[in-house]
Amino acid sequence: MNQLNQYGQPVGDALPDWQPRPFPQRVTLEGQYCRLEPLRIEHAPALFAAHRLAGDGSSWTWLLREPENDVEAFTAWVTSVCELKDPVHFTVIDNRTQSPVGTLSLMRIDAANGVIEVGSVHFSLLLRRTRASTEAQWLLMKYALETLGYRRYEWKCNSLNEPSRRAALRLGFQYEGRFRQALVQKGRNRDTDWFSVIDSEWPRLDNAFRQWLAVGNFTADGKQLQSLESFRG
Question: In what order do the strands lie in the sheet with 29-30?
């Protein structure tokens, strides 16, 4: 709750023990259904093949770049970003097949203020709407908020990207508003919607993720018994 300073003006809560947070590292994050590995050049051929399964470029519409036409061009993109400090790109590895099936990153990293964003999410058809896709998001959120101790975890998307907006809300992000005419993306206007999770919300979200991901929450043919939202009450 807000406090008053010596002039009687409202000011934010004091954070006397606050210290800048550690910068994300290129670590492996292990899960039950998948693991996140630092994006590497060796992942490129399998990732390119996984994305090609869609048969068209619809999964690229909301990304900031256009799809590469061949594996050599895609490998060149991976080479250009895989060692960056911001964004820090991760590959999602399916634990059943041991194959790369998508990518996501930690980006716009503000260690001084404890603010970080999940972005560049590009999941292939092999990953979308699976337990592994939810677990991948949980693993990265857990790393940022719990392991590294960031205070704020952001999700931003094109306001017209309804699947991304739904995903953010399903995962427990709070909608914060729309930044109008925030970008010119691929020659078109982009309004950007902002969502966030803050550290005080993490324990409840973490508990919900763990319950949803539990083997007992799924039938033998993989259908969920309870939704992720229901575990948050």
Answer: 29-30, 34-38, 88-94, 99-110, 115-123, 152-158, 188-198, 174-185
* Helix 202-213 × helix 131-142 angle, to 10°: 150
Element spanning 92, H or E = strand 88-94
| Predicted TM-score of the model (pTM) | 0.96
Tokens of 28: 């492996």
pLDDT tens-place string over residues 79-103: 999 999 999 999 999 999 999 999 9
Question: Which residues are within 8 A (CB) of 124 and not within 5 positions of it... i.e. 6 or more apart?
Answer: 47, 50, 51, 53, 54, 59, 101, 102
Q: What are phi and psi of 167, to 5 degrees?
A: -60, -45
Q: Quick check: helix, strand or coil at residue 228?
A: helix
pLDDT in tens, 142-196: 999 999 999 999 999 999 999 999 999 999 999 999 999 999 999 999 999 999 9
